[in-house]
């Protein structure tokens, strides 16, 4: 009788997020628990379009209101950006509405009710009044263009006044939610992946290295608007080693407009890095030391020099992290080629150490009042090493007892480079062109060795002397991805009510992946075609888009766009020359956005988008990794892309936001599913297409200010989920109610102290045939601002309740391959002890003084607009 380890994996060691999946895969892939099964209406394209038109038409028949437009320039004709424009009542100078001028100095104030007003324009170093009265009597409501205003800067030195503007933590827009993460105390000392994990509607699956948004996979991630075209598990590893201190905001774009790539059926996540725009020479530094079950540390510094014509900036950070994880498995399965029924109980422990360097440097230059050029280089280097230890007992029924133990040691290295150059030119008033080119390079190398002992109750070696049953295994992988992107965007403001955006984009990706597993047989390292991978992939994507933005009256805004994308994917085995995938795809992706101002404080939004998720090269490639003697990680060359139609209805009242999202996915992709080989002698772990998936999701964001020292934010994303699985032995449908809940509480305390408590909870959820129980996290932090710009100290504690455990079930929804049924509990480091970090940070430079010497005249208007 052969011996085996069917219930766990001894696969290659990749990274902190991937280690559990790659080392222990078949027994614990992610899944989601059934809270309440509910059938709901199956959406299709025709239903969505009819619903969209029906909801849109009645909203056009509303009374009009007034509008003011204008442009601000300095004495040297350069645009005056980010100035504060306030509309005040003529009778008592009370504040009515406000606006901020954009990068070209243009501003708009819409939805003005009847009456007489005066206009005030203010900013750093100046405060002026627009001469004359603006009359919007009920019978003469119309748009008023006050033309170009030349603003002379005041040189008068003001007394020191501290003005600290702060954006809301959450900002709701028609295309999605903006999270200003730099406003959170818990950002410092965290990774980019941890910030995403705390974001509303975002779920990080550490077992199969995926990111879900509002309960859906198929998310694409951008860095400063640049699409990261790399496999999701590699992207998760990169984000897990990215310093959160460098991030200004995270954009959760569930309904991206036509100017964005159509890739990402669940939407786009755009991570926006900080860019210091304070005038003069400025900088900041931060140092973090922490401990959970092992040490952690981060250090970073950023510098900038800003003048009217040039902006130079750069940043560097280093992070060190050592972490531990353990896992318990109880599993049973029926494998005829092993003799029948097998039950397994095992413990698995792992340790991972990583050192990461991040660097970012860039420049923006104004050649003249109409032309700007710039460029940016971002570099990431990461080195990881670690080991995983396995001890498991097997009972091959009726009475054959086996013992398995193994040690898996390995290392992983990353090098990522993103280069960007651009030219932006304003050809004339309201007409602008932007040309940019990007070069992205990703390289990942890893290697590992597995030493194992598999013996029967008499201490004799179990199993035959076969390749995958060898007590010694070694493996390596080398993946290189090169991406070139060229883009041109053109905008034209025809009138104050009508504007056009259009553009062209071309992207070329080349990926090479060389990986293999060798077994020590009779003293010789031996491999096979089934355990090696030589893949060359070339993909070309061309796109063109056009979007028309109209404002029929000051209270209504309408944007209609269309994007066309063509892609050609060519994947071959570079070792044998055999073709794997040759696929051409072309499609139109329409989008429609409608917003209606109901009152000064409320707005209604309606939008529709169509999107696509293309399989990655790793999804399509075959035989990419070793799991255990009876299982391999493999791709699926027959995998189809996911096509998604979305409709979103939103309502904003002051800073509160509510939205209802309907989505229909055809051929949704579920990764790391279990299937049998045709000969029933090996377990395949591969991505599979679901027949379809429907989601109805309610999203809310509710900020509250209890008083001047206590504020809070609550957000919820959840609703009905439904999908159909047809690739299993028995097809089935699954319905449940899934949700995620986030909250934060911020306290301003005496003597320059502040504190924050935050947390999140994801209820049980499902992925294909897998199910995982729900769990939540509670975090806290306290901050002390030192006097005289001495910086600040910040203490944070993550996972106070030590509850970050992943409890996964297999075989509960339908019959799995080889009738596998298993329960897996993965315990992360914080379940052994909360992770505590202490951070010191400080800003310095001439901009700090300039920031404090601001005109008090504009503060009130800015505060009003932020409330």
Straight-line distance between termini: 73 Å
β-sheet strand percentage: over 45%
Helix content: under 10%
CATH superfamily of the largest domain, by name, is: TonB-dependent receptor, beta-barrel domain
Multimeric status of the protein: single chain
Decide which structural class fits the backbone. mainly beta
The helix count comes to 7
Shape: globular
Mean pLDDT: 81
Characterise this structure.
With 867 residues, the chain is mainly beta. It has 2 domains: 19-50 and 277-866, Maltoporin, Chain A; 65-140, Sandwich (Immunoglobulin-like). The chain contains 7 helices and 46 strands. It has a 22-stranded antiparallel beta barrel. A 6-stranded mixed β-sheet has the order 9-10-15-16-13-14, with no helix packed on it. The model is unreliable at 1-48, 50-64, 155-165 and 849-867 (pLDDT under 50).
């Amino acid at each position: 009788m052969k011996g085996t380890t069917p219930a766990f994996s001894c696969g290659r060691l990749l990274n902190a997020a991937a280690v559990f999946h790659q080392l222990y895969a078949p027994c614990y892939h992610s899944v989601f628990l059934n809270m309440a099964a509910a059938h709901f209406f199956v959406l299709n394209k025709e239903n969505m379009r009819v619903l969209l038109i029906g909801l849109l038409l009645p909203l056009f028949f509303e009374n009009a209101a007034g509008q003011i437009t204008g442009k601000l320039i300095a004495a040297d004709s350069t645009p005056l950006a980010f100035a504060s424009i306030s509309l005040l009542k003529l009778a008592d100078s009370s504040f009515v509405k406000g606006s901020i001028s954009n990068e070209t100095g243009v501003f708009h104030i819409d939805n003005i009710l009847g009456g007489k007003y005066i206009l005030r324009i203010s900013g750093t170093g100046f405060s002026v009044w627009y001469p004359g009265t603006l009359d919007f009597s009920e019978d003469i409501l119309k748009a008023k263009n006050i033309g170009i205003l030349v603003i002379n800067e005041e040189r008068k030195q003001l007394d020191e006044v501290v003005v600290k503007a702060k954006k809301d933590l959450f900002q709701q827009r028609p295309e999605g939610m903006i999270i200003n993460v730099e406003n959170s105390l818990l950002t410092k000392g965290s990774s980019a992946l941890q910030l995403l994990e705390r974001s509303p509607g975002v779920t990080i699956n550490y077992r199969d290295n995926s990111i879900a948004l509002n309960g859906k996979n198929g998310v694409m991630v951008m860095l400063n608007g640049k699409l990261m075209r790399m496999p999701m598990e590699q992207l998760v590893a990169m984000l897990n080693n990215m310093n959160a201190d460098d991030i200004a905001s995270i954009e959760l774009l569930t309904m991206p407009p036509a100017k964005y790539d159509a890739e990402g059926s669940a939407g786009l996540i755009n991570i926006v890095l900080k860019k210091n725009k304070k005038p003069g020479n400025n900088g900041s530094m931060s140092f973090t030391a922490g401990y959970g079950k092992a040490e952690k540390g981060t250090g970073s510094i950023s510098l900038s020099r800003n003048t009217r014509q040039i902006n130079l900036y750069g940043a560097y950070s280093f992070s060190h992290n050592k972490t531990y994880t353990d896992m318990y498995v109880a599993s049973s399965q029926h494998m005829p080629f092993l003799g029948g029924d097998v039950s397994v109980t095992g413990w698995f422990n792992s340790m991972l150490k990583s050192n990461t360097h991040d660097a970012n440097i860039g420049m923006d230059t104004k050649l003249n009042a109409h032309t700007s050029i710039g460029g940016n280089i971002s570099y990431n280097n990461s080195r990881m090493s670690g080991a995983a230890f396995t001890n498991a007992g097997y009972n091959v029924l009726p009475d054959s007892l086996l013992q398995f133990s193994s040690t898996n040691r390995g290392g992983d290295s990353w090098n990522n480079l993103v280069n960007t150059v651009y030219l932006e030119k304003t050809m004339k008033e309201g007409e602008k062109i932007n040309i940019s080119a990007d070069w992205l390079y990703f390289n990942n190398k890893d290697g590992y060795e597995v030493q194992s002992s598999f013996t029967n109750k008499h201490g004799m070696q179990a199993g035959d002397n076969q390749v995958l049953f060898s007590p010694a295994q070694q493996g390596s992988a080398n993946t290189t991805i090169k991406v070139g992107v060229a883009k041109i965007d053109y905008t034209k403001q025809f009138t104050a009510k009508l504007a056009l955006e259009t553009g062209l984009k071309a992207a070329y990706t080349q990926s090479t992946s060389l990986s293999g597993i060798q077994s020590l047989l009779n003293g010789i390292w031996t491999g096979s075609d089934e355990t090696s991978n030589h893949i060359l992939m070339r993909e070309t994507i061309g796109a063109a888009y056009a979007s028309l933005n109209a404002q029929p009256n000051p209270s209504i805004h309408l944007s209609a766009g269309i994007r066309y994308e063509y892609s050609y994917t060519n994947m071959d085995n570079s070792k044998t020359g055999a073709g794997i995938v040759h696929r051409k795809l072309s499609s139109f992706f329409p989008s429609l956005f409608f917003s209606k101002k109901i009152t000064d404080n409320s707005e209604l939004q309606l939008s529709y988008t169509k999107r696509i998720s293309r399989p990655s090269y790793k999804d399509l490639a075959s035989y990419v990794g070793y799991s255990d003697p009876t299982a391999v990680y493999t791709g699926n060359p027959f995998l189809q892309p996911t096509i998604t139609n979305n409709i979103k209805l939103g309502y904003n009242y002051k800073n509160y936001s509510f939205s209802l999202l309907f989505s229909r996915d055809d051929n949704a992709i579920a990764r790391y599913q279990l299937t049998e080989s045709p000969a029933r002698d090996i377990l395949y772990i591969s991505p599979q297409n679901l027949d379809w998936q429907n989601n109805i999701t309610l999203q809310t964001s509710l900020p509250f200010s209890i008083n001047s020292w206590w504020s809070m934010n609550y957000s919820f994303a959840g609703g009905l989920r439904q999908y159909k699985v047809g690739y299993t032995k028995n097809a089935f449908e699954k319905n449940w109610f899934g949700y995620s809940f986030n909250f934060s509480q911020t306290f301003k305390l005496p003597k320059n102290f502040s504190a924050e408590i935050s947390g999140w909870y994801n209820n049980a959820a499902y992925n294909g045939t897998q199910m995982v129980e729900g769990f939540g996290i509670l975090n806290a932090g306290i901050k002390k601002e030192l006097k005289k710009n001495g910086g600040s100290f910040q203490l944070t504690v993550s996972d106070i309740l030590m509850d970050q455990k992943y409890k996964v079930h297999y075989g509960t929804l339908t019959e799995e391959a080889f009738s596998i049924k298993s329960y897996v509990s993965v315990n992360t480091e914080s379940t052994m002890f909360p992770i505590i970090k202490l951070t010191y940070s400080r800003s310095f430079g001439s901009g700090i003084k300039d920031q404090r010497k601001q005109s008090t005249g504009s503060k009130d208007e800015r505060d009003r607009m932020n409330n």
